[in-house]
Each structure stands twice: as structure tokens, then as C-alpha cells.
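can u do me a favor
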């Protein structure tokens, strides 16, 4: 059984639901160790005092904030003293439609588990959100930082998704993104036709981390001394003199992205609602 990373309560009006928070996802990438090239010894990172050069043990490390040239040291209990109620509670501020929240705001997902004696209010909140079609927009403090979040129903569980604050999102105007561009009607029509030919229902089960699987296969082969370099045929690039319209026409004749390995499989899991705009 995994250990909870946070415990507290969901504050839903005057109802308080004690919960434990667990990570909802597990990374699928391979855990590669960093080694010294010369003897394959593990590389270790040390916490070093910048003045003495000596390693500092965890128990001797404190957190501080510089005010007028000197540090104010904060102990664990100081963070709770500053805002005790926020460190132990997820406050649902309002309820919104999930499709109003743009996907750029979504961060990490966590499952919320109730104590056995508090299953009824947990289930009540879950049922009420199902019937209303709404999700709870709230905030909580974890690791000395306040987070914005959404609480929604996922299968039979309450799922908390951390959200980025609006000020954390970079302004697209800072990048060289084209504005208004002129197209002829045939180009637009053919581009829409290409999208239609590649469209289908969303099914996450149809997509796998193929790179990690191939890398693991290579690692096992190299361990046995049976390494062969895979020959990759160079990808044919469009002729420089061909027009955008000709490239679209060629794509329609042989649709891209519908390979055997990437074709979605049927699934009974329902797809999440689309997300558009977060109203703050």
C-alpha cells in the first residue's frame, strides 16, 4: 500500500471530510543511474557549505528567507503558525464546469481517500458533483506553498488535479508565433479533409510508451553482447518546389499517423470532458 503524501480535510461548506492524498500516476520512463565513465561508480550529489566546502547532514539544514541583508530562519512549526488552517485543509472555493478550464492550467493528479468513518460525506460530495456536472475549484497548502486545484469524480474516486495559477503561464506573445495568414479556399478545405480522415474517438489505452519498451529491449540485448544498430530509413521530406496544396493532397492519398502500432483499441473507460477556459 503506497504512503499518503498529504493528509487533511476537504472543506465543503460546513462539511469537513478527512482525506489522505496519494499520487494518481506513476512515471513509465526507465530509471537510469548516473555513473563515473571510468569505473561505473555511482555519482552522488552532496549538500555542501559554500564557505567551508564541507558536506552538511540533513538534520543541520534549515530554511531561511533574506530580509534586509540577513536571514530569517523558519522551522517546520513556523509554516503552520503562519497559516495553520491552510496547511491542513483543501478549501473548495466554488464549483465550475470542467470544460471552462483550459488544459494549460492542469498539472499533477492525486487520488483522495477518506477515512472509513467518513465514507458517507465523501460519497455524498462525489454523488452531488456527478449529478450537477460540476467540479470543485479550491486551494490548499503543501510543502510550504499554496496550490490551486480542481476536485472531480474519476471512476469511483475523488481526483484532485493541481492547477497552475494564471501568473505562472507564459504569455504566447513572447514567442514568434504567426498572426493572421492568408489561405486560399482549397488549402483550408483540404486541410480540414485531412483532419477528418485522421479523426477518431479518444482512447488513451491505444497509446503506449514505445520508446521505453524499445530502450529496455536494447539494454537487455547489450547486456548479452547482442547489439545490432537498427537501420532507419530516412524520412522523405516534401519536395521544396511542391506547394502546400500538393503536400496536403499527398497526405490525403496516404494518411499519416494511422500506423498499426498507434491505432486506438476499444475501451470501456470514458474520456474526460474537454477543457476550454478557466474563469477566475
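np, heres the sequence
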Amino acid at each position: 500500500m503506497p504512503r499518503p503524501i498529504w493528509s487533511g480535510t476537504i472543506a465543503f461548506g460546513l462539511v469537513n471530510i478527512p482525506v489522505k492524498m496519494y499520487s494518481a500516476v506513476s512515471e513509465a520512463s526507465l530509471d537510469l543511474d548516473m555513473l563515473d565513465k571510468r569505473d561505473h561508480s555511482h555519482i552522488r550529489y552532496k549538500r555542501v557549505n559554500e564557505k567551508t566546502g564541507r558536506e552538511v547532514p540533513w538534520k543541520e539544514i534549515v530554511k531561511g528567507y533574506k530580509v534586509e541583508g540577513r536571514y530569517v530562519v523558519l522551522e517546520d512549526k513556523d509554516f503552520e503558525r503562519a497559516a495553520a488552517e491552510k496547511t491542513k485543509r483543501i478549501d473548495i472555493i466554488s464549483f465550475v464546469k470542467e470544460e471552462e478550464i483550459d488544459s494549460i492550467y492542469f498539472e499533477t493528479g492525486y487520488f483522495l481517500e477518506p477515512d472509513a468513518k467518513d465514507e458517507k460525506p465523501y460519497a455524498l460530495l462525489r454523488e452531488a458533483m456527478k449529478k450537477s456536472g460540476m467540479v470543485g475549484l479550491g486551494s490548499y497548502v503543501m510543502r510550504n506553498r499554496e496550490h490551486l486545484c480542481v476536485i472531480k469524480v474519476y471512476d469511483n474516486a475523488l481526483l484532485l488535479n493541481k492547477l497552475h495559477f494564471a501568473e505562472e503561464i507564459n504569455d504566447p506573445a513572447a514567442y514568434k508565433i504567426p498572426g493572421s495568414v492568408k489561405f486560399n479556399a482549397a488549402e483550408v478545405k483540404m486541410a480540414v479533409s485531412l483532419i477528418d480522415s485522421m479523426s477518431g474517438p479518444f482512447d488513451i489505452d491505444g497509446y503506449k510508451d514505445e520508446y521505453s519498451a524499445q530502450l529496455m529491449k536494447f539494454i537487455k540485448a547489450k547486456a548479452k553482447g547482442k547489439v545490432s544498430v537498427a537501420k532507419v530509413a530516412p524520412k522523405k521530406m516534401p519536395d521544396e518546389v511542391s506547394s502546400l496544396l500538393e503536400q496536403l493532397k499527398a497526405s490525403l492519398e496516404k494518411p499519416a499517423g494511422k500506423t498499426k502500432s498507434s491505432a486506438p483499441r476499444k475501451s470501456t473507460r470514458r474520456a474526460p470532458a474537454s477543457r476550454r477556459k478557466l474563469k477566475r
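The chain has a mean pLDDT of 82. hope that helps!!
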